[in-house]
């Protein structure tokens, strides 16, 4: 029997964002949700409420607006879910623009959806190839990083974004773990 507030397709269940209790009944292998929702659940867990447990991983959906997930945010998610955290950048149209693999050595660029250019002072210039309603054409990102075109430790070829650093209002930057690149 399927509850009214989620859809089921094969072995995938899609819940609305407030269905934490019902989701826990399914014992999911993976939880994928916007970063803000995962953080809200992590906060609820720290307040003593039961949150859904994932058996294998948590995928945090973010966007190119903020750069990579900060190390401190990853720590909060690890403490709450106790499984590895992976990041996926989504465009405003919902298409994947970049993703983090099990090597955690930067974000793989979805080259069919995003063009990334290396600008001056480590600034990245982004062009979405999928969003026709809100085009992003050669937009200088609000973060810095390094475009790497060598294979990742996971074996995947292609471009990766590494050493991603968000810029703060004071002009300072802090390096996020997902953006680290060792290759």
Give an overview in words.
- With 183 residues, the protein is α+β, with helices and mostly antiparallel strands.
- It has one domain.
- The chain has three helices and twelve strands; from the N terminus they run ββαβαβαββββββββ.
- Strands 3, 4, 5, 6, 7, 8, 9, 10, 11 and 12 form a ten-stranded mixed β-sheet that branches. Strands 1-2 form a two-stranded antiparallel ribbon.
- A hairpin with a 5-residue loop joins β11 (160-167) and β12 (173-175).
- α2 packs across α3.
- It is elongated and about 45 Å long.
- Mean pLDDT is 82; it is low at 1-6 and 169-183.
Indicate the overall shape: elongated
How many beta-strand runs?
12
Structural class: alpha+beta
Percent of residues in β-strands: 35-45%
List keywords for this structure.
183 residues; alpha+beta; 10-stranded mixed sheet; two-stranded antiparallel sheet; 15% helix; elongated; disordered N terminus
Provide a compact summary of the structure.
With 183 residues, the protein is α+β, with helices and mostly antiparallel strands. 15% of the residues lie in helices and 36% in strands.
How would you summarize the topology of this molecule?
Blueprint (H helix, E strand, L loop, with lengths): L5 E4 L2 E4 L4 H5 L5 E5 H12 L10 E6 L8 H11 L3 E6 L5 E5 L6 E3 L4 E5 L4 E6 L10 E10 L11 E8 L5 E3 L8
Parallel strand pairs: 3-4, 4-5
Antiparallel strand pairs: 1-2, 5-6, 6-7, 7-11, 8-9, 9-10, 10-11, 11-12
Helix pairs in contact: 2-3
